[in-house]
Amino acid sequence: MKRKNIFLLSLVFVLYLTLQSCQQPHGNSPGSEYMPDMAHSIAYEANYYSYYYNNRWGGEDSYYEYAQPRLPVKGSVPRGGSGANVAQKSVPYYYGNTDAERERATAEIVKNPLPITDAGLAHGKELYVVYCGICHGDKADGNGYLVRDDGGVYPVQPAILNSEEFKAASNGRYYHAIMYGKNQMGAYKDKLSHNERWNVIHYIRSLHAKEMGVAYNQMENGLNSIDEPAGEIALMEESHEDHDEAHGSDHGAHDGDHDAHGHDADNHDNDHGHDDEHSHDDNHGEH
Question: What is the pLDDT of residues 181-223, one digit of tens each?
Fold first, then answer.
């Protein structure tokens, strides 16, 4: 009887501990945590102090040290790291979609951050024909397919980019229009990358230069004193790339000749072996 009572008491105690260990949070009670680290992660966010009392992986001072700023990874781009007077090279664009912000962008974004290159102009032309020429016209005269009689009827006259107004416009005016659109024109920021936008603007400038009879290319800019031609450096880089491609092709041809030589050698061995077999059979017949 005594043993039975001890067993019952032990069973009740175990059940009590089990119930207590599974206690759910309620009211002012946080409940029971068998392994607090599974419920409270010790992971930390940079520059944010979130130490809690159950942390067992170091003291409060060491945790505070973890939360301090670190040096950025080499080559990373800081948020908002470029100057306000230069178009952002890190893609973020810090101008809103309002008339006041449009005016600010027009005034502050002056220089095209990309140098003028023949490759960039060629790429800009391809993009302009696809995304811009259908309205603004292949000659930037505002006479695109959607405006002409052979196309469709557009509700408003697209901007004539070859007009004196747009020739004198800053690069920021063009860039802001590409980012947010203007009037009936929609935004193209989701269709053109950062470099593509600027190459399109370069190509529009080249149309201005063509109408005015001045140069606007990799070696010379007779249109303005703002946008910089890439010059000889780009030519040297292109020449170096062409040399690497040609060298790779020659190397491939050399490997092909080498393989052919090896193949000829194999054929020669096969022919030689075939002659030996044939001679052996002849000799065997004579024997």
Answer: 998 899 998 899 889 999 999 999 999 999 999 999 999 999 9
Cβ proximity of 86 and 172 under 8 Å:
no
* The overall pTM is greater than 0.85: no
Give the CA count within 13 Å in the CB-facing half-sphere of 118: 11
In 3D, which of 202, 153, 38, 172 has the Cα closest to residue 94?
172
Q: Is the CA virtual torsion 2, 3, 8, 13 positive or negative?
A: positive
* Three-state secondary-structure class, residue 26: strand
User: Up-side HSE of residue 95: CA atoms within 13 Å toward CB?
Assistant: 27
Decide: 98 and 121 in contact? Cβ < 8 Å.
Answer: no
Going from the C-alpha of 284 to that of each of 192, 280, 281, the distances in angstroms are 80, 6, 5
Domains and CATH numbers, the chain: 34-70 (no CATH), 99-231 (1.10.760.10)
Helix (H, G, I), strand (E, B) or coil at 5: helix
- 8 A C-beta contact, residue 199 and residue 205: no
Torsion angle defined by CA atoms of residues 148, 154, 155 and 156, in that order, rounded to the nearest 10 degrees: -60
Q: Report which DSSP code applies to 157.
A: P
In this structure, what token pair is assigned to residue 23?
């206690």
For residue 249, give both structure tokens. 């092709």
